[in-house]
């Protein structure tokens, strides 16, 4: 009798153990969706890695087993069952990236068996330089490979006015003229546009009718598209511009700032802040759509500014007046640094007769490029030259020397090694603008496109 009881207990234990084993096997974690997909090519060099698991995972067991070659610094975050790795710097361009999930990653449930090993690769794309062409007629959007010289035409027959590129380079948002005399907002999928050519139809995000929707600017997280809205005043006239935002992807529209104020030049920071200029109050206004926090900095000039790479400093020119001979005053333009945390305003231009504009931070945060023109008689020139200085304002030095040419539309490459720019011959006003590129130290300048303008680097 006792033997039967013992045998029954053993059988029961075996059944329970077998059931637990089967249950644990069924609950083993699996890696489902992977982005970039295994074998995917032309992945933007800014792309994050997303791994979607079948069930909640033990964070440390996953992160310590994920191996990436070549190694790039970055940060990990979890969104439920999804692990996201955001690279701090760019992936090497045009190279194969190898990922390996070593065996042993475990689910949060202690019963589940650990996951086995997996290996996959993807290949990054080379950076392209987007621009508009031609300068003397309805423009279209193009993308140029500076290494090979290959050019892709991204829009066809629309008359593009301005554009903005998403952080990962996959989408381009632009304003284009419509048949009613206004301009509408569009979204372009860059990969589809390159693959389909003239057959590709971009998505119209907002039909503005008789109004002008201009200067689109997409936020770093891709959730908002800010733009200037100029309502029709009848008989071809327009009311003063106001900044509006389009929520993506819901396309909900809302106004920003005071309804009776003229507001222009939206610019997003990586920290989530939106800057714009209020012409009515003569202030740069900053707003955080997530927290509704607001800041303002007085400025009489109101020219476009730019954000630092960390999104905590805004750089913009300001006019000031200096005494000169014969009891007159000379208007100078200095670059001012507005700090969102300390609220401090610092002049980065020397106390000299200069006209400094278009200050732009390099993506690595170490340098500022800007356009300068001396105003004194001895050093005066027709055009502004390109200068570079440290992000703190030290070591300012010129990297172009073409006095008849005005240099503008300054754009750092994503690796902070090159600068694209447009130059225009002030001595021959009938000549078209020219799109150029050079190294950050001014060496190896090369002309890219005659009649090209508005360059933006895209990964």
Provide a concise account of the structure shown.
The chain has 459 residues and is mainly beta. Helix content is 8%, strand content 46%. The protein has a domain at 24-123: Sandwich (Immunoglobulin-like).
Structure description:
This protein is mainly β. The protein has a domain at 24-123: Immunoglobulin-like. The chain contains three helices and 37 strands. The strands form ten sheets. The chain has a four-stranded antiparallel β-sheet, with no helix packed on it. A four-stranded antiparallel β-sheet has the order 10-9-8-37, with no helix packed on it. A four-stranded antiparallel β-sheet has the order 11-12-13-14. The protein is globular, with a radius of gyration of 28 Å. 35% of the residues are buried. Mean pLDDT is 90; it is low at 12-17.
CATH class of the domain at 24-123: Mainly Beta
Low-pLDDT segments: 12-17
Strand order of the largest sheet: 1-2-5-4
The assigned structural class equals: mainly beta
Strand percentage, roughly? over 45%
Q: What is the CATH topology of the domain at 24-123?
A: Immunoglobulin-like
Q: Assign an overall shape.
A: globular
> Judging by the overall fold, what is the CATH architecture of the domain at 24-123?
Sandwich
Query: The biggest beta sheet, please?
Result: 4 strands, antiparallel
Can you give the mean pLDDT? Answer: 90
Record keyword descriptors for this entry.
459 residues, globular, 4-stranded antiparallel beta sheet, Immunoglobulin-like, 37 strands, mainly beta
């Amino acid at each position: 009798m006792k033997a039967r009881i013992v045998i029954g207990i053993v059988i029961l234990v075996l059944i329970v153990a077998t059931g637990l084993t089967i249950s644990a096997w069924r609950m083993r974690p699996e890696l489902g969706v992977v982005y970039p997909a295994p074998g995917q090519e032309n992945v933007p060099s800014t792309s994050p890695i997303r791994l979607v698991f079948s069930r909640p995972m033990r964070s440390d067991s996953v992160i310590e087993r994920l191996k990436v070659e070549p190694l790039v610094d970055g940060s990990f975050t979890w969104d439920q069952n999804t692990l996201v790795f955001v690279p701090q710097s760019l992936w090497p361009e045009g190279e194969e990236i190898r990922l390996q999930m070593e065996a042993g990653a475990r689910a949060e449930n202690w019963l589940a068996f650990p996951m086995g090993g997996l290996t996959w690769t993807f290949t990054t794309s080379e950076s392209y330089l987007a621009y508009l062409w031609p300068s003397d007629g309805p423009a279209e959007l193009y993308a140029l490979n500076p290494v090979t010289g290959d050019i892709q035409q991204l829009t066809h027959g629309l008359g593009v006015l301005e554009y903005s590129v998403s952080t990962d380079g996959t989408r381009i948002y632009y304003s284009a003229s419509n048949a009613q005399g206004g301009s509408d907002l569009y979204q372009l999928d860059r990969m589809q546009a390159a693959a389909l050519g003239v057959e590709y139809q971009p998505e119209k995000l907002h039909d503005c009718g008789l109004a002008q929707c201009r200067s689109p600017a997409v936020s770093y997280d891709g959730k908002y598209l800010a733009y200037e809205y100029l309502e029709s005043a009848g008989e071809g006239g327009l009311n003063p511009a106001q900044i509006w935002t389009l929520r993506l992807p819901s396309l909900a529209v809302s106004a920003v700032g005071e309804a009776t104020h003229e507001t222009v030049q939206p610019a997003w920071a990586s920290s989530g802040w939106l800057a714009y200029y209020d012409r009515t109050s003569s202030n740069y206004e900053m707003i955080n759509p997530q927290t509704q926090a607001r800041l303002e900095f007085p400025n009489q000039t109101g020219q476009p500014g730019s954000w630092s790479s960390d999104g905590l400093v805004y750089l913009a020119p300001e006019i000031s007046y200096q005494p000169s001979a014969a009891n007159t005053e000379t208007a100078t333009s200095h670059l001012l640094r507005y700090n969102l945390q300390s609220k401090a305003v610092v002049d980065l231009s020397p106390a000299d007769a200069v006209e400094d504009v278009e200050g732009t931070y390099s993506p690595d945060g170490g340098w500022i490029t800007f356009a300068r023109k001396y105003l004194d008689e001895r050093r005066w020139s027709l055009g502004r030259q390109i200068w570079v200085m440290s992000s703190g304002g030290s070591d300012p030095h010129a990297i172009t020397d073409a006095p008849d040419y005005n240099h503008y539309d300054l754009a750092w490459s994503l690796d902070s090694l090159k600068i694209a720019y447009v130059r225009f011959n002030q001595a021959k006003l009938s000549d078209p603008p020219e799109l150029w590129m050079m190294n950050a130290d001014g060496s190896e300048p090369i002309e890219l496109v005659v009649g090209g303008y508005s360059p933006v680097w895209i990964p």
